[in-house]
Design goal:
Blueprint: H1 3-7, E1 13-18, H2 33-51, E2 55-59, H3 73-85, E3 93-96, H4 101-111, E4 115-118, E5 124-126, E6 129-131, H5 135-144, E7 151-155, E8 161-163, H6 169-178, E9 183-186, H7 197-206, E10 212-214, H8 223-227, E11 232-235, H9 251-266
Parallel strand pairs: 1-2, 1-11, 2-3, 3-4, 4-7, 7-9, 9-10, 10-11
Antiparallel strand pairs: 5-6, 5-8
Length: about 270
Amino acid sequence: MSLEERFGTVKPVIAMVHFPGLPGRPRHDRVAGRARLLDVVGRDLAVLQDAGVDAVLFCNEADIPYQLTVGPEIPAAMAAVISELNSSVRVPFGVNILWDARASLAVARATGATFIREVLTGVYESDLGLIEPSLGDLASYREAIGASDVAFFGNITPEFSSTLGTRTVAERARSASFLGLDAILISGPEAGVPFAMSDLRAAKEAVPQTPVLANTGVTADRLAEILAIADGVIVGTSLKADGVTWNPVDPARARRFMEAAREIRAAPAVAT
């Protein structure tokens, strides 16, 4: 399935819906509990949809320090909140549990998500430990739980980490495409921080047949430059009040971003 078929447009804008801290994590508000999760997630979801985003990505961004394998309380809480809000979701959506691809896939299957975002290929040293996904095992698990329609969006330059080995971004992109990833993501060193345009260009030139999306540090004023190469963007921090990751989504920022996206998509294509 192409990005246009999945999201209803070329060059889709996928906006982050960040959960507050979830149960068992340092930032979880035990007093406010489930009500706070519903309030925060529901409010940001409504603002983003009103602004006209093409899709949303539910993520446990506030669960720092992140875990490579989460406990059952994390996917359970996320699935419960997403399911309760499901009737309000008007756009395609994805799931990202940092950094547990199996948990993300389970929640996606339970809630009707169309994709997951994770580190799915390669091996990386990171601030969280060694990231070494097993794509083959995950693909088998996807089939076993009846989630074959859930797309794999794989981050090949993950935040807080660096690759082990000497393969270039282009080589990693070609491998990820060959192994069946539905989209390849290019990130900066952490959430909200711009990626290297050279990485984006190298990945896209290496795999013209596979969608390549910009994954961090996307702002409205850089959108034209980015979408001249990328097949879409995932955006979070720049839509938040004052551009701070942990703040609520700012309706004015979200509207301006989508206005810019629509203008760019409506403009005649220019060769790059």
